[in-house]
Amino acid sequence: MFKLANFRRFLICGLLGLILTGVVSCLKSPSAKAPQLEFWTMQLQPKFNDYFKDAIGKFETANPAIKVHWVDVPWSAMHGKIQAAMAAKTAPDVVNLNPDFAIQLAARNAWLQLDPVLTKGENKEYLPNIWQAGTLDGKTFSLPWYLTTNVTIYNQELFIKAGIAKPPTTYQELAQTAKQIKEKTGKYAFFATLLAEDSNDVLESLVQMGVQLVDKQGKAAFNTSAGKAAFQYWVDLYKQGLLPKEAMTQGHQQGIQLYQSGEIAMLSAGAPFIETIAKNAPQIAKISAVAPQISGQTGKTGVAVMNLVIPRTSKLPEAAVKFALFITNATNQLAFAQASDTLPSNVKAVADYKAKLADSKNNSALDRGKSISAEQLAQSEILIPPLKNIDLLKKAIYENLQAAMSGETTVEQAIATAASTWDAGKQR
User: Fold this and answer.
1) How far apart are CA 14 and CA 20, in angstroms?
2) For 231, which of 162, 223, 296, 352 is 20 to 30 Å away at the CA?
3) DSSP summary character for residue 411
4) 231 or 120: whose pLDDT is higher?
5) 3-state DSSP call for residue 173?
6) What are phi and psi of 237, to 5 degrees?
7) All domains of the chain, ordered by start, with CATH?
8) pLDDT > 60? residue 207
């Protein structure tokens, strides 16, 4: 009996031990945890902490099997950080990038191709001209997120002194305005940089003037009469002393400093920059007004796009696509646009955004700028075509344009050299 009792106690304790071990094992098992999706953005903390806490919370409530870990990366660090993560196979599941950089990695097959997984016509939910920014060779690699279209912020006092009633709307008018402002005030009308590693403004101006940068085969298409006229435009402005000499050596930050110090009459920037001017140069802000973006005979206006991409190495591709669609849906895009003073790329969100602006009784310069930006969306597009080696194209054009501006070569030779440089190196 003693032995039997001991055996029973041993058996019962053993069974309890196995049960408890199993329970603990289940509690500790990774498979019982919701998978964690990693989401990287560019320099959105801490301003948008509340927005993302709310949005991510709603997504997790609707998708309890998925948890989202949000990581915000400084703008200047993102390129190096994502490249390093891709090389180490530790990339996040959803990444916020701009098309210029995203397309370079798309050319290396870094991103998940979205066409096979977007089968419910999701592309129709976004502005068609903006959707194109996330395609390469006819294949979709990103979802559009938030946008900005530049407006013209101008110094009314300098315009009055120069006897100019309204700001220019075309490049032809801009040249006339620049001449009149210089003659009457001694100031420059505007600043544009020719640094290849900086702004795309001059390159975009060529497209607005009717220049085709590349043909369907990707070869240079700008060595034409339209291209030569556009080159000549910038050469003439510089040689006539209507463009600051710093255009050759300084980036777009120089233009911001010159405007805030009252040394130039116009600045091309996103509408939210009006608030920055008010903070940095309140006296200039008081005499500043807002007008539409300057364009050429095409009437096209440029737009800056931020998008969401999904690395091909993601271990949670379905969840990543679901989350990217959630962040870029109409409700979330409208909420983010209102929180950030940017523009949405979702068709319904754009309509709702315009309606809310129309209902607003605030007639501040910022609200006027936002209204102009929203109205420009109808004719806004990515002016520079998606190219694998866009930096090489910009460098070829800017460096040769600089050579013509400084008198080292003719316009004809400059544009021919730029075209041959691009054609020779574009496949690298």
Assistant:
1) 10
2) 162
3) H
4) 231
5) helix
6) -55, -45
7) 33-146+304-375 (3.40.190.10), 150-302+389-425 (3.40.190.10)
8) yes
